[in-house]
């Protein structure tokens, strides 16, 4: 038992590190670029050198790397402050779905531009009527010649406003059971009838959107899977969502909390000398360390050629609430000043307040805490699903509420 | 990355689990729980024959000279089986203390006996309520011998000798004494603890014959080092126990029906089990870290040990408590085995320092690592 790379892994790590060191964009190169332009510059540079989407086939821009090499690459890239983020849905979720369900012409047309960052994709799944119960979605598609005509509304669509393409699940048959009446498409986000409205979040930011469809036409050639097979196709996307989103414990961590507890006083002594404060920090350290070493065990499994399973859901389930609790606790340490978000006046330049305000999103996006716990109970521990009131019922007969 | 047990170690685990399934079924735990014996001598003898007491003892002292990675595999399985034997006292504490601080003569005498199971050892630190500290020690050596009172001492009646932490005017304020317990100057009485399947004692020393183990005035730092090492091994027992309690809760929930369906299908129960799984997984991964640090004698051992121990205490106590809860009224009966985990988890949770003690040690170690 050790933390060492194998010979091949060490060689790969050295090669990746050397390339990154020579090629990560300098602040000068990024000066004046907005987030998307900066991300595109870096992605194109990686693509041209064969370091984009490294697990993909060479013909689509990858280098056919192993899972463990992907982890090593991620670790090495994370040592630098590189622009990114906007390609996660396209590369991490849309692309694997295209690879599994698309035709060769889809692969040739779309995968290279996903890898190079030339085209950005978004995910049009959630609806006002269906979040955790995703298959309850109502946006409908009706066949008209070689096209499908889409009407309805999606919600929580991150990056819809700057995306070129979107993956879309719609209802093609309301008269069969919920999961059986769905179909899966992709579409050009510039199609006539697509209307995007930003949603202002409780943080004050607006990263995601409502997307309205009014008689939007999608060619049948952009369907993935059979008509009525949309749920199965969506599962491919969702499986990859958990892999793409991962841990989520960034922002406020034990190092930040320790620093604050060392500076702030309780009864004229540093807070860190208080046994209750020490106990709290110790518990969070145990969680951070536990996630880190769970990650090392997953890496070991990958190193031995195994595929990590649903047990990896714990990263988000532990990390997201922990982030919220830690930000909240650190603000408590600051007492009344904990409320100050003004970056010039607040400790850690507003990090605590930003983290706390953003934390509810982390506990909801990509599967709520409750859904993640269900996944562990059902897929890891083998416990049965809750009985479903809508089982076997035609979708059009399923009761709905007022929210 | 190679952060996993080897194939040979996994084989050892299979063998250990098979052995304990056969020789330490719930009925064996219950026999000690219901009876007056401090432990199960027949099971202990078989464990000795398996060579487990000799695992890390060097070959020159009659041991197997294996690594701590083998020992933690055994520890996990003993925890899973809630084994009623003095393994932790004799192996994690007494043997470790002798290897760390014994003179050549002491090692020559005791390690072969420990390896062969011909002697059982224990470690006597606590003198009653509250967190042991060097200032609170009243047990002391003088011209006439060792005097003082230790309680509770795990396996205090089963043990042939104890390593006793006494006050000292020199060095760090404490010294270790090796005391043979079958002598006139030692009086031992059984103490009932909440885990009836593990024997404990109060031991009084009245001018007892005792010999120094390690340096005069080096006993407190030796105690902290010993507790770091033992914490990792205890944590592995706790992780084994936590896993067993979780599986018992899951299996019961699958077979128990209420309102026309298995209670395992209710999210209130599923989320409880998912919570156990999360705590157990984090604790286990931290125990890997502890095992690595113990095995490589890493400078990170104090941090790794505290991290493993805090996580393991939480996981074991939570799984044991919520296992009873999942069983409902039957879980509260003497007849059901849920009590084994409930008792043992709490005992293990205090016997080499409580959660609060190790949380404090963790932050201290974190501070020392950052300063280094």
What does this structure look like?
The complex is a heterodimer of chains A (403) and B (372). Chain A has helices spanning 7-23, 27-30, 35-48, 67-78, 88-101, 104-116, 230-245, 254-263, 275-303, 314-333, 351-364, 369-380; strands at 121-124, 140-144, 147-158, 165-171, 182-188, 194-199, 208-219, 223-224, 265-266, 269-270. Chain A is α+β, with helices and mostly antiparallel strands. In chain A, strand 9 and strand 10 (269-270) form a beta hairpin. Chain B is an alpha+beta fold. Chain B has three domains: 7-115, Acyl-CoA dehydrogenase/oxidase, N-terminal domain (Butyryl-Coa Dehydrogenase, subunit A, domain 1), CATH 1.10.540.10; 121-215, Butyryl-CoA Dehydrogenase, subunit A, domain 2, CATH 2.40.110.10; 220-371, Butyryl-CoA Dehydrogenase, subunit A, domain 3 (Up-down Bundle), CATH 1.20.140. In chain B, 54% of the residues lie in helices and 14% in strands. In chain B, the strands form three sheets. In chain B, strands 1-4-5-8 form a four-stranded mixed β-sheet, with helices on one face. In chain B, strands 2-3-7-6 form a four-stranded antiparallel β-sheet, with no helix packed on it. In chain B, strand 6 (186-191) and strand 7 form a beta hairpin. The longest helix of chain B has 37 residues, at 219-255. Chain B starts with 6 loop residues before the first helix and ends with a helix. The interface between A and B is large, with 52 and 46 residues.
